[in-house]
Every structure is written in C-alpha cells, then in structure tokens.
Amino acid sequence: MTHAAQWTDLEARATALRDHLPEGFARTALDGAMAVAVLDIPLRGNFFAAAMREVVSMSLHANAPDQAVMETPDFELEDGQERPTQAQRFAYWARAGLDPAFVKARLDVDIDPAVKTGKASLKELSKRVHVREGTHVHDEEAVLELVGSALAALETVFTAAEDARSAVIDALAEEINDEAFNAFVLDTMEAIDELATHHSIKAVWVGDVQVRQAAPDQLRFEVTGSIDVGLQWGSNSDVRRGDGAEADENFKFTLTFTAPTLAPTEFEDTTYALDLGRWERDVFEREVEDWRELEAKAPDTP
Fold first, then answer.
1. How far apart are CA 183 and CA 236, in angstroms?
2. By CB neighbour count within 10 A (0-12 exposed, 13-18 middle, 19+ buried), where does 261 fall?
3. How far is the C-alpha of 59 from the C-alpha of 52, rounded, in Å?
C-alpha cells in the first residue's frame, strides 16, 4: 500500500473515531493531530502525539469527571495520586457510572474483561503518545506507524468502554421494568378515569426502555409501551339491560423519569403522556357525557 493510500485509510479511521469523542476541544484536537501529522515539517510526529494526549485526556474526563468518579462507593485514590487515574476513569465509564456492587450483584454484568482490555489499550496509547524528550519523529514510515498504532489503541479503548456500558445499560433497562410499571399505573389512573364510569387496567406492555446519562450523577429513562384497558359506561345493571356499554381499548404511552446514577431505582421527576387516540375527539367526549347523564338518573344497583 502506498503512503498516500495509508494516509487515506488513517484519515477515514480518525473521522470514524471523531463521532465517539465529546463535542468541543477533543474533536478539535483530533482534527489538529491528523492535520499536523501529514505535513512535511520537523517534529510532526511529536506534535501529533501532543495533540493525541489531549484527545485521550478530554475523552476520559468527559466520560468520568473527577468528582463523580471519587464519589463512587469504596473509591480510593491510588498511592501518590490526587486525582483518579486513567484506569479508574475507564472503569467508571465502562459501568456507566453505576455503583460497582450494583452492577455486579443486581445487574449481574461482568465488566472486568472490558476494563482489562481498556487498561491495556490506554497503557499502549500512553506509550505511543509520550515521545521521549530529544526524539524527533519526522520520517514518513515512523509517523505512519505512530498514527496507526495510536488510532488503533484509541479505537480499542472506545470499543471496550462502549460495549461494556451498553451491556450495563441494557441490564438496567430490564431491571427497572417493574418499577416503571408501578409508577405508570398509579399516575395514569386519573387520566383514564375521565373516560368512563368504571375502568380496569388489564395489562401494561413495555415496548422499549431507553437509558441516557443526563449528567455524570443523573440518569434519564424514557419508556414507551401500551396499556390494555377495560372501559364501562353505566352500572353493571345498566350494561345487562342494554342501557350501558363496555369496550376494550389499547392506549400507547410514554413515561420519562430521572434517577441518581448511584441509586438508579429511586425515580424522580416522573412524567407521562397517554395517547387516548379516538377518545380525545369531541364526538366521543359527547358520548361520555351522555353516559354520565344516564348514570346520574339511574341508581347504581349491581
């Protein structure tokens, strides 16, 4: 492969990596690292390495800020360190900031292999981008090797962290299904009560649960699904006489709530939207009023 073809490949890999970086300076640093690497100037490899150090640092700090990492239960600084190490930040990132004990015992997710891979790649990346003082990296082959190995290590870091984090988030989404069900049923009773004289919730179907990190210390959940409801207008005797009515309906809903990262089942700021579909139209509102007038005129006998 020619040098030109190698640079084309490396630039494509850098572009793909860019989407994984936090917005702002980290992306600018990666763009700068690649721009300077292709220039035929002295120390271009050194300049690339310096920029890549910033890419790594900004990425780790964005996904694992100091305070959030240090607030993790049982966290301890390494000897001689005043801030979390790269390895500690990576472990925090890989478990989505959750309590390690919760991830292991409650979610039953083993992130140790991913953390081991991430640590090894960070070590390799650090070795590549910390060029020895007095070393001038300019030769084309040397720069190509430096850029290729640095991008490969960074690719592995992101893959290991994001795969582990996805596994944790997926397990958490499954874990909160019951809690989401309970929160939703309690909050929707009043809305459905407006539709009919009597109603019953027969089943709640959770279709999808999305979990996002709203902040290092806060998770945001978005739940979508549907609810099977039995509606009745008039009393039981009205229904038997043909003066009442019954209907089964399925309504779609969305439910959102937040929770502290270290207490992901303690819901806060719960809101929901219930799509009543055709029951929100005026014609059905008039029918509901008609049934209520009928119920008011007749005694409610079983």
1. 30
2. buried
3. 11
Residue 295: how many other CB atoms lie within 10 Å? 18
Give the integer Cα–Cα distance in Å for 39 and 50: 15
For residues 143 and 36, what is the distance between their CA atoms, to the nearest angstrom? 11
Q: Are 98 and 264 in contact (CB under 8 A)?
A: yes
Q: Work out the angle at residue 294's Cα, subtended by the Cα atoms of residues 291 and 295, and round it to the nearest 5 degrees.
A: 90
Q: What's the one-letter identity of residue 300? A: D
Beta bridge partners of 257: 221
Provide the whole-model pTM.
0.77
Distance set, CA 76 to CA 54, 70, 79, 251, 279 (Å):
25, 7, 9, 49, 57
**Could you tell me if 245 and 233 are in contact, meaning their C-beta atoms sit under 8 angstroms apart?**
yes
Which H or E run contains 5?
Answer: helix 3-18
SS3 89: helix
Q: Three-state DSSP class for 41?
A: coil
The first and second tokens of residue 270, run together, are: 């719960």
Summarize pLDDT for 268-291 with one digit per residue, the tens. 887 878 787 766 654 445 555 665
37-89: per-residue pLDDT in tens?
999 998 999 999 999 999 999 999 999 999 999 999 999 999 999 999 999 99
Burial class (CB in 10 A: 0-12, 13-18, 19+), 105: exposed
Cα separation, 256 vs 260, in Å, equals 14
